[in-house]
Amino acid sequence: MSEMENPKQIVEEREKEALEALTKENSVQGLTEWKNSFLSKKSPLMQLMSLMRQIPNELKAAYGKLVNDARNAVEKAFEEKMKKAQEEALKEKLEAERIDLTLPGRSYSQGSINPYWEIVDEMSDIFASMGFDIVEGRDVETDHFNFELLNVPKDHPARDMQDTFYLSDSLLLRTQTSAAQAHTMLENEEKKPIKMICPGKCYRRDDDDATHSHEFGQIEGLVVDKGISLADLKGTLELFVKKMFGEKRQIRLRSSFFPFTEPSVEVDVSCSKCGGKGCSLCKGTGWIEILGAGEVHPHVLEMCGYDPKIYSGFAFGVGVERIAMLRYGIDDIRRIYTNDVRFLKDFTEK
Ligand code: PHE
After folding, report:
1. CA 208, CA 258: separation in Å to the nearest integer?
2. Tens of pLDDT along 280-301?
3. Which residue's CA is minimally distant from atom 4 of ligand 1?
């Protein structure tokens, strides 16, 4: 290839050509197009370096500097212009898009926490404040934990009341959170004292009506230690009821039967509507049943590794929806499950 005639002149010409074309562009779009033709790899200005081969060795350094200076000058001129053009464009856009702050905003309907969870949270708080741990159970249980370890052997008639959904001969959807009692006792290898509640869903083949559902929530309570008596159960539940329903409410214990507690009791709370005189809500008795409870059966303690001669305990199981219905005056359990926002709103506004 022949040597270039006047390299300096060529560089200056290409620089001038680019700068002249730049003076004609003022818009972002025009400048972008200019950049594509004058600063692209194949542009005459950018190609100057590849002409280096044609420059005699002793002039190569000076030529390189010349090209770089020209390129920097053109790039700098372009950047300044582009910056101005972009500022200008932004200004125009802001002018054109004035926001009218006087327009009313769009309103979104807000949901609220389902009363079911309100009650679970509140009861968890109340029992946690009394020093109870909150334990997570499992929805799918074995026959062994749901029934046998709770003193309900295979042909026990108590199984009739708790028919459920079987996944296999020995796996089922738990009918009661009481299954968590056996887990907690067995998993407690050092056989330390226990004070826990276990909230969770339970399942039974119940006919669904205003007060029953095939799927419902329960909160199990279990205390195991030396010297735990029915008086401890009563004191604990009395405190719970007063915190949940108000200072004026009282409880009463009625004798009952559960295979895994002895003695067993049904716990009633004094009626909120009539204060105990008798009305339609409490069916004239002045009391409303809220939960089942009792002293842990010695055989259950024994099966779960606690020596009943040393340890005793109490347990209770309370229906979450039942508490929600009493607390908020809900007449039909199904309202809790349908998630109708109009119904749920009542609890946001409470
Ligand atoms: N698991 C019993 C039920 O579902 C309630 C209960 C729990 C009773 C703990 C006594 C002790 O009916």
Report:
1. 23
2. 888 999 999 999 999 999 999 9
3. 176
The 10s digit of each residue's pLDDT in 166-201 is 999 999 999 999 999 999 999 999 999 999 999 999
Q: 115 CB under 6 A from ligand 1?
A: no
Domain assignments of the chain as residue spans, ordered by start: 2-96, 115-349
Cα–ligand 1 centroid distance for 178 (angstroms): 6
Instruction: Select from 173, 197, 258 the residue to mutate for testing ligand 1; criterion: most ligand atoms less than 8 Å from CB.
Output: 258
In the reported structure, the alpha carbon of residue 219 is separated from the centroid of ligand 1 by a whole-number distance in angstroms of 9
- Ligand 1 within 6 A of CB of 294: yes
Residue nearest to atom 7 of ligand 1 (CA): 317
E strand spans, the chain:
133-134, 140-142, 171-173, 194-203, 215-225, 251-258, 261-270, 287-296, 312-319
CA–centroid distance, 65 to ligand 1, in Å, is 91
The residue among 265, 1, 257 whose CA lies nearest residue 151 is 257
| Token couple for 53 | 């081969």
What is residue 263's predicted lDDT score, i.e. its pLDDT?
Answer: 98
DSSP string, 6-48: -HHHHHHHHHHHHHHHHHT--SHHHHHHHHHHHSSTTSHHHHG
DSSP for 229-282 reads -HHHHHHHHHHHHHHHH-TT--EEEEEEEETTEEEEEEEEEE-TTTTTS--TTT
Q: Does 180 sit in the ligand 1 pocket, CB within 6 Å?
A: no
Q: What is the CATH number of domain 115-349?
A: 3.30.930.10
- Residue nearest atom 10 in ligand 1 by C-alpha distance: 293
Q: How far is the CA of 323 from the centre of ligand 1 (A)?
A: 15
Per-residue pLDDT band for 116 (boundaries 50, 70, 90) equals: very high
